[in-house]
Amino acid sequence: MVKAVIFDYDGVLGNSENIHIKMETEIIHSFDPSFVHHAEDFAGMKEVLAWEKMKSEADIPLSAQELQDLRSKLVRERFPKGIPLFPDAISIVKTLKPRYKLAIATGCSRALFEASCRSSDLLSLVDAVITSDEVDVGKPSPDIYLLSANKLNTSPKECIVIEDAPKGIKAAKAAGMKCVGITTTFKKDLLKGADIIIKDLSEFPDAIKRLSD
């Protein structure tokens, strides 16, 4: 029986994944224009570890923590009201709220999440927000999803995750959870580990029903 729904944030509720990818590329290219950003290699990772990996592949004088802080600063400056949510985000979360415990589990640091998500309407609807600051190892490790289930007082098998990134799908499945992939960031063939793949949030309630049968 499904008792909880756990949302990745960027690329699922927040229309922010592609913005973050472009901003990462901009920051790195300011130091090393030759760097080629393969987003699927980094999306979903614990933020500081993603920066460490990018730093190891490019000529960048800043530390991973400094790069992380710089991106959060740029988001606050460029999006003072936060990065917009997807159009269906609030309505879908409101639809699910009466039936399920709800959490957000993001690979972002707490600082970047708070800079990106300024929607008090969304935050008032979820029971927990877990960021990469709270786990030692990020996605594709299951740690953040296991912690989410614990905070919701549910078992992993009672949870459904929605993810837009390959590493996030691997994390959800490694946690023993069912997972819905959404093609807002990556093409369907990169999300093949998901139990069901949907094109946008409007299809999510039906996907939960199908996985609950």
Features:
40% helix, 6-stranded parallel sheet, globular, single chain, Rossmann fold, 6 strands, alpha/beta, 213 residues
By CATH reckoning, the class of the largest domain would read Alpha Beta
Number of strands: 6
Q: Mean pLDDT score, rounded?
A: 93
- CATH architecture title of the largest domain: 3-Layer(aba) Sandwich
Rg, alpha carbons: 16 Å
* Adjacency order of strands in the biggest sheet: 3-2-1-4-5-6
CATH topology of the largest domain: Rossmann fold
* Biggest sheet character: 6 strands, parallel
As a percent range, the share of helical residues equals 25-40%
* Helix-strand category: alpha/beta
Distance, first to last CA: 9 Å
Tally of individual domains:
2
Order of helices and strands: EHHHHEHHEHEHEEH
Poorly predicted parts: none
Strand fraction: 5-15%
